[in-house]
Amino acid sequence: MNKKRKAQRARHEALVEKKGKDVVMWIIVALIAFALVYMGITIYGMM
Predict the structure, then answer these.
(1) DSSP calls for 11-43
(2) How far is residue 37's CA from residue 16's CA, in Å, rounded to a whole number?
(3) What is the C-alpha to C-alpha distance for residues 7 and 18, in angstroms, rounded to an integer?
(4) C-alpha distances in Å from residue 22, one per residue of 13, 31, 35, 38
(5) Which residues contact 41 (CB under 8 A, 6 or more apart)?
(6) How far apart are CA 12 and CA 19, in angstroms?
(7) What sign has the CA pseudo-torsion 25, 28, 32, 38?
(8) Measured between alpha carbons, how far is 31 from 35 in angstroms, rounded to an integer?
(9) 3 state SS of 7
């Protein structure tokens, strides 16, 4: 494998890794948001 191909492959792997981390972050944010909404609905229902 020549140097250009190795550099291109490394960039691609870094991009895939970054996208994967972004997806995980958005899943966690969505779960927290749903938990807050559920908690709000539950507390409102107790009143």
Answers:
(1) HHHHHHHHHHHHHHHHHHHHHHHHHHHHHHHHH
(2) 32
(3) 17
(4) 14, 14, 20, 24
(5) none
(6) 11
(7) positive
(8) 6
(9) helix
- Model-level pTM? 0.71
**Residue reference for tokens 């559920």:** 38
Q: How many C-beta atoms lie closer than 10 Å to residue 20's C-beta?
A: 10
Tokens representing 19 are: 């996208």
Reported as a single tens digit per residue, the pLDDT across 5-46 is 999 999 999 999 999 999 999 999 999 999 999 999 999 888
- Residue 38 carries which side chain, given as an amino acid letter? Y
